[in-house]
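User: Okay, second chain of the day. Same drill as before: sequence in, structure tokens out.
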Amino acid sequence: MRGKARAGSHRESIPSQESHRHRSSQEPAWGNWSDEKLLDLRFCDLDVRVEQSQITEHIAQLYRELGDRGLLFRPHFWLSNEWFSPDGVPGIAVPFYLAHPRLTRLEFAQMLEVEGGTPDRCLRILRHETGHAIENAFGLRRRRDRQVVFGKSTQPYPKFYKPKPYSKRYVLHLDMWYAQSHPDEDFAETFAVWLNPQSMWQERYADWPARKKLEYMDQLMASLVDARPLVTTKQRVDSLPRLRRTLREHYEQKQAHYGTPHPTFYDRDLRRIFTDRPEQQGAVLAVQFLARIRRAVCREVAAWAGEYQYTIDRVFEDIVSHCREQNLTLVSSEEKAKLDVTILLTVQTMNYLHSGHHRVAL
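Assistant: Same drill. Structure tokens below.
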């Protein structure tokens, strides 16, 4: 995720565990604030740092993996409002919400998930962003062979993209077939798979056209063993102290970006699960039933489809709204209805992808 695709340095020291515990004991004033009060705080007033966070452990793991490959390159890190590696900067911005548990909880409350919030997910994103950073460090986008294999970086970045889920021309690493969104993302995703010591890419991609990209990456990185980066700037683009927006403004924009871009209509499907003519007095209202199963169903669909959790929740909310407007009630057993709702939500998610009515937000 080049993210904002803007212009960031070399290695930033990793604090010792003792230092980490000492600094973490100094709780910020906003640590116990309510969500409403915290949302009115500006980024520049958070006063949090990478060195104080648990992400240092994952950065140390990333550095070990680079070292095991014989690479001298080490990206530097800073906190910003999202994940990105700016053009021309061999470094990586880490989202603010990973710097403190209170901010992590706020992110989950606002977006229903925490991107990079688990060790595995965090390492996946770090490997991906390092793919962008190493391109910046060695000017790899200008290489003719790189352009032949992955395409040109000058191709405009789309606001949305329409993936082909069954294509074998791209590796699978981050969700939503992210390698298909742009040549630079294809490179970063391929680098991440190559770097991961557990990817077993030679076997997994044995009969995929994407294997040629991985073989090229293997040769390209072999040529950089023991090489020192050409670009060593320690620039920190959009670091937290420079951001004046409030968290509320940030989340309003983020929610609008990842919301469903088109209305959905599926009355016929809903009438197979619910009815507006209850056969017995005291039938369970559809909205009450949906409220009980919402979290479990949305998580299950997200895990299967790889869709952004916030988008799925918006689709689910649309289903609830239809049921409320038509005063629908349950007509079958709750177990069967839960399965039917899960299938409906999954089908709607995949229909967006395959029909083109849904575009994946970058």
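Residues 261-361 form one domain.

User: Thanks, on to the next one.
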